[in-house]
Design brief:
Elements: E1 2-8, E2 11-16, E3 27-36, H1 39-45, E4 60-68, E5 80-83, H2 93-96, E6 122-126, E7 130-132, H3 139-142, H4 145-157, E8 165-169, H5 173-182, E9 188-193, H6 196-205, E10 209-211, H7 217-224, E11 232-235, H8 241-247, E12 253-256, H9 269-273, E13 278-280, H10 289-299, H11 313-317, E14 318-323, H12 327-333, E15 355-359
Parallel strand pairs: 8-9, 8-11, 9-10, 11-12, 12-13, 14-15
Antiparallel strand pairs: 1-2, 3-4, 3-6, 3-15, 4-5, 5-7
Helix pairs in contact: 4-5, 4-10, 7-8
């Protein structure tokens, strides 16, 4: 089968790999329909997130079950499924207390990082990491289930309530999903973003959007809010912690979501203690959050705002699809793979897409985006 293999920073290529096959009695072989391009994938290729050279990339995947082991009971051949790539052992101390996201035996199990992932024609996983998709859920909504689980984990960690005002730094796919989920609980949600394309996309979904291009994000958001500071700030960029700490109100919470291994910021503990700020890192999502994300994806299947059209809100976030053999174009649409993340002018990368999906299935698809034979 064809698979996109990571060779090292800045380098990946399509290779022929052995076809996915059953190994254990509880294994499921999933024929991959498509995989969302995660910011982590791009950071791996930029050398900003560690991964094992030789691994097949990709983890935000949906597909169709093609084969099951003799002990599999929850899914059957022909079922449409979503992959839960956050594997866990189930028997270490954290797993036994329910904290499967902090499993102590993750080495070699991170799908698309150090275990072969889903930018491929098929993948083999244990049954408990394959979840059936509700009937009628379109492909473009289903492919956002995994990032939706990440967002649910982080919004839950912030304990957002109806009297909170929330600012989301970044209007990429995770930022948009964070704002959508937080808006179901919070009094008001504001999205801050410097990129022109993403600003346009955010303004189609949210009433409060601030352009922070060429300015200090904290100052720009406070000015746009009439001097008011938010009680909760989500940094979905991975490089906005300093701005978030300056922006959040006294007694507020800052949730660090984005991944960038090269970013550091000086942190003086008095900034937290004197102002009563809680700095939160939620980690991966627990196993019990993933089915919630599946249900929420089904619920978000209708238009969110009057006049926004009839396309479901999740589907509107998926703006581009590319076949597996055009993977380079997919990353180019998301700012490219310039090593330092900039174009030499001091400007951040510009975007030509919001959520990009790489399709592994080469055949025709129906109106719902799924293969016609699925």
């Amino acid at each position: 089968m064809r698979a996109l293999v990571y060779l090292g920073p800045g380098s990946a290529e399509l290779q022929d790999r052995p076809a996915a096959q059953l190994v254990n009695g509880d294994d499921v072989v999933v024929e991959v329909t498509g995989t969302g391009v995660c910011g982590t994938d791009r950071k791996i290729l930029l050398g900003r997130f560690p991964a094992r050279p030789g691994v097949v990339l990709g983890h935000e995947s949906v597909g169709v079950v093609r084969e099951t082991g003799p002990r599999v009971r929850s899914v059957g051949v022909g079922d449409r499924v979503v992959v839960n790539p956050t594997l866990y052992c189930g028997w270490c101390v954290p797993c036994r207390r329910g904290a499967t996201n902090f499993c102590r035996h993750k080495a070699g199990t991170e799908v698309g990082v150090d275990r072969d992932g889903t930018y491929a024609e098929a993948v083999t996983l244990p049954e408990r990491f394959v979840e059936r998709i509700p009937a009628g859920l379109p492909f473009r909504s289903a492919v956002l289930i995994e990032p939706l689980a990440c967002v649910l984990n982080n919004v839950g960690a912030a304990s957002v309530t109806f009297d909170d005002t929330v600012v989301v730094l970044g209007a990429g796919p995770i930022g948009m999903l964070t704002a959508l989920v937080a808006a179901r609980r919070a009094r008001r949600v504001t999205v801050a973003e410097p990129d022109g394309y993403r600003l346009e996309q955010a303004r189609e979904q949210f009433a409060h959007v601030v352009d922070v291009a060429g300015t200090d994000p904290a100052e720009a958001v406070v000015k746009a809010s009439g001097g008011e500071r938010p009680s909760v700030v989500f940094d979905t960029t991975g490089t906005g912690l300093d701005a978030a700490l300056r922006l959040v109100d006294d007694g507020g919470r800052v949730v660090v979501m984005g991944f960038d291994d090269t970013y550091t910021v000086p942190l003086h503990p008095l900034r937290l203690t004197n102002r009563g700020i809680r700095l939160i890192g939620a980690g991966d999502y627990r196993a019990d959050i993933f089915p919630v994300a599946v249900d929420l994806a089904a619920e978000l299947g209708g238009p969110r705002r009057p006049g926004a059209g009839t396309v479901p809100v999740l589907e509107r976030l998926v703006t581009h699809e590319f076949p597996l053999d055009r993977h380079a174009e997919a990353f180019t649409a998301l700012g490219g793979l310039t090593q330092d993340g900039y174009d030499g002018t001091g400007r951040p990368p510009s975007y030509a897409a919001l959520k990009v999906v790489i399709r592994s299935h080469p055949g025709p698809v129906g109106a719902d985006g799924w293969p016609v034979d699925a």
